[in-house]
């Protein structure tokens, strides 16, 4: 093998290593979330691309209502069935979204006790029955949050 080929091979292996290290593995969260869905709603994580918007009882209600209003205004039609909202609390604006999305109300508040590191409105992006990304909507990033919510509807 020539020096030039060795350098190419080294570069390719380095890139492959960096790419493999940058992938975040959500096995723990997937296992917890899968059990939670099954135990509380007799459901499984969707196999198709899906967005789960989660909020437990320890949230800023006005902030979540604001995010839901953004989501609602982004939805032109009532067929956003790859979006599921799961919450433990009643929130203004949910009634309009119930007809446009899947909605699960955790009346027993079990979501409060799951080790899922939820923060206000948390979005689980899933495919093939696994969580592939988790997004948090922090209170101080309104423009970014609006963009993220619009992207969810756009990718529907």
Q: What this model shows, in words?
A:
The protein has 156 residues and is an alpha/beta fold. The protein has a single domain (25-154), classed as Glutaredoxin (3-Layer(aba) Sandwich), CATH 3.40.30. Helices cover 43% and strands 19% of the residues. The chain contains 5 helices and 5 strands, in the order H-H-E-H-E-H-E-E-E-H. Strands 3-2-1-4-5 form a 5-stranded mixed beta sheet, with helices on both faces. A hairpin with a 2-residue loop joins strand 4 (121-127) and strand 5 (130-137). Helix 3 (61-74) packs across helix 5 (142-154). The radius of gyration is 19 Å and the shape is globular. The relative contact order is 0.19. Residues 16-22 have low confidence and may be disordered.
């Amino acid at each position: 093998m020539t020096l030039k080929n060795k350098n190419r091979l080294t570069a390719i292996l380095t890139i492959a290593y960096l790419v493999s290290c940058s992938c975040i593995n959500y096995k723990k969260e997937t296992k917890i979330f899968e059990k939670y869905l099954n135990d509380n709603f007799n459901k499984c994580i969707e196999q198709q691309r899906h967005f789960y918007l989660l909020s437990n009882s320890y949230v800023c209600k006005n902030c979540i209502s604001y995010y839901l209003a953004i989501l609602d205004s982004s939805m032109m039609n009532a067929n956003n069935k790859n979006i599921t909202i799961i919450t433990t609390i009643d929130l203004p604006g949910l009634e309009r979204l119930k007809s446009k999305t899947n909605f699960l109300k955790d009346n027993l508040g079990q979501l409060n006790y799951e080790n899922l590191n939820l923060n206000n409105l948390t979005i689980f992006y899933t495919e093939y029955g696994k969580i592939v990304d988790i997004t948090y909507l922090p209170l101080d990033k309104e423009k970014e949050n609006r963009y993220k919510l619009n992207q969810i509807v756009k990718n529907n």
